[in-house]
Write a structure and sequence with these properties.
GMP Synthetase, Chain A, domain 3, five-stranded mixed β-sheet, four-stranded mixed β-sheet, 32% helix, 21% strand
Length: 574
């Protein structure tokens, strides 16, 4: 069986002679780059209303680069870490560091000092940009990592006088002559732009080396996939001049970093930057800013569906919504389409190792139920069976992909790189899926997370999506627990809506009735081996990482404690 091919290939090569800022800021006439309204903003801070246009962005990037070079002499190969929530100067810092030849490593601002220290050590960071709110943790981690004194810069508001701010550096750079040589050459795009840390579902997070050319490829692939420069009426276009994209997803994650910050700016959208997600503020921003494009993750989609607050806001101006970064069921997505009937809504699929992109729904083609869209341009996939055989259409197996957006490998981890990044350019995703006869890609779940019941594979995401449709359920997570006869059986952790949570807490009989109702909800509509024979447990929250992926290792720890407790009770009765 041949590999599964994309429906579109670009008629020209992906540039390898440009860095990310050279492509975003300097290459203004690319044939896939849509035009903008004259003077329209590229970046907008939602809280303050501060906006940067193209010229101010270029100036701030240049002045910051000069000031950082003068003060710390960082350059080619040095790593700079950003440990901050979304900020309007976040892209400015990234592009200024790239102008100097530095590699950027973005860190979760919710990290503890130990977690940040690990990332600082892994990357050997030479300079740290952080926020005032995170400064205490950042300083502790920086000192523990032995990274050197006086190498911390703070985003606004102003920190103690001993530390510079981004704005102070930009102002001081205004009076400097250019003092650095920007990276150049026919293969400069092969150099590392980002060290993006994987989600770490197994073991410690690993630093994925993402090249400049990988990021440039994603910008071009998304624009081509959505026919950003196609002829046609204004309403038919994916991104119209003046359209606004809401950047509520974190920039430190590969999704927010590449698919939003870079690809949406290249496509002509204005990026409205929100520091953190708060439901009411999120809805108010959508209405006040007249947001047209919404990149989301499943937890936000579920929250919008479940919250009565959503119906109080007019969201009819939203034109395009993509949900990615974690599984979501087709049933939940259909309900979301009913909530926003005027919007084109679908899924995308990718991972840090593929610079966030493999497939994407196509607003110009009919939606394929349950799929993550179609392979983006110049991306090839194969579905591989455990014995190495290539699968036929509709037959599940491990998803392998190849394309210009494949990252370089894991930094300082040769063994894992060789296991994932194969010599002939293929990347093993570790996800199970299949390709339909129409070419749509369907992602089932992580191979390591599938539950084996009597030899049958059960995808936790399928059961979670079904449980989320029940009116009692606010959130859900499913893992397998050992069973003497079937090997494993599914156990569901459920967050109940109020007042059902209060009812369940009122006594064992009431809790038992609700559990029975939820088990019946599954058994009435799913094949026998998918039933919740491991039981239902009520919890206050489902642990997730910032991109919305369920942290199943934590759920498995809870499940093990529950199973052990059940066994002790049985033993006590013997």
């Amino acid at each position: 069986m041949p590999n599964f091919e994309p429906t579109l290939r670009l008629p020209y090569q992906y540039p390898r002679h440009l860095t990310v800022p050279q492509f975003v800021l300097d290459e203004v006439s690319h044939p896939l780059r849509p035009s903008r309204l004259r003077g329209s903003p590229w970046l907008i801070d939602d809280a303050s209303g501060r906006a940067y246009g193209s010229q101010e962005i270029r100036e701030r990037v240049e002045r910051l680069a000069r000031a950082v070079k003068e003060r710390w002499a960082v350059g080619a190969g040095d790593v700079v870490c950003l440990y901050s929530p979304n900020h309007i100067d976040y892209p400015i810092v990234i592009w200024a560091m790239h102008r100097l030849g530095c590699t950027v490593s973005c860190a979760n601002p919710a990290y503890t000092s130990g977690e940040l220290e690990y990332q600082l050590r892994e990357t050997a960071a030479k300079l740290l940009f952080t926020s005032t709110a995170a400064l205490e943790v950042a300083s502790k981690a920086w000192e523990a990592a032995g990274a050197g004194r006086g190498r911390i810069v703070v985003f606004s508001p102003p920190p103690p006088d001993v530390l510079p701010t981004v704005q102070q550096l930009v102002s001081s750079g205004w009076h400097m002559d250019k003092n650095y040589l920007e990276p150049h050459g026919h293969s400069v795009g092969d150099s590392v732009a980002f060290l993006g840390f994987s989600s770490g579902t197994t073991g410690l997070p690993k630093a994925v080396a993402v090249a400049h050319r990988n990021v440039v490829a994603v910008m071009l692939q998304i624009a081509a996939h959505h026919q950003a420069n196609a002829a046609g009426g204004r309403e038919e276009r994916w991104m119209r001049p003046g359209d606004l994209v809401l950047a509520v997803l974190p920039f430190y994650h590969i999704y927010g970093l590449v698919a939003i910050m870079h690809a949406m700016i290249f496509a002509g959208g204005g990026i409205v930057i929100v520091q953190q997600f708060h439901p009411q503020q999120f809805l108010e921003t959508i209405v006040r800013r007249r947001i047209t494009h919404l990149p989301l993750v499943p937890p936000i989609v579920v929250l919008l569906l479940k919250s009565p607050m959503t119906k109080k806001y007019d969201l009819s101006h939203i034109r395009w919504v993509v949900c990615a970064a974690a599984p979501i069921s087709e049933q939940v997505l259909q309900e979301f389409r009913a909530l926003l009937p005027r919007a084109h809504i679908g899924m995308g699929y990718g991972l840090t190792e593929t610079t966030t992109l493999v497939s994407l729904f196509d607003m110009h083609r009919a939606s394929v139920a349950g799929s993550s869209g179609f392979l983006v341009p110049d991306t090839v996939a194969r579905i591989v069976q455990p014995d190495g055989r290539l699968a036929d259409p509709g037959e599940p197996g491990e998803i392998w992909v190849k394309g210009p957006q494949m990252a370089l490998g894991y930094s300082n981890n040769k063994q894992v790189t060789e296991e994932t990044f194969l010599p002939d350019g293929w990347v093993r995703t570790g996800d199970e899926g299949f390709v339909g006869k129409d070419g749509s890609l369907h992602v089932v779940d992580r191979l390591k997370e599938l539950i084996k019941v009597s030899g049958f594979q059960v995808a936790p995401a399928e059961l979670e999506g079904h449980l989320l449709l029940h009116p009692y359920v606010q959130d859900a997570g499913v893992v397998g627990v050992p069973d003497d006869y079937k090997g494993e059986v599914p156990l569901a952790f459920v967050v109940l809506k109020e007042p059902l949570a209060q009812k369940a807490a009122s006594g064992p009989r009431e809790a038992g009735e609700i559990k029975q109702e939820l088990r019946k909800w599954v058994s009435d509509q799913k094949v026998r081996y998918k039933w919740l024979e491991g039981g239902v447990e009520f919890v206050h929250a489902i642990p997730k990482n910032p991109s919305g992926k369920i942290l199943r290792r934590l759920l498995r720890d809870q499940a093990k404690a529950i199973v052990d407790g059940r066994q002790k009770k049985r033993n006590a009765k013997l």
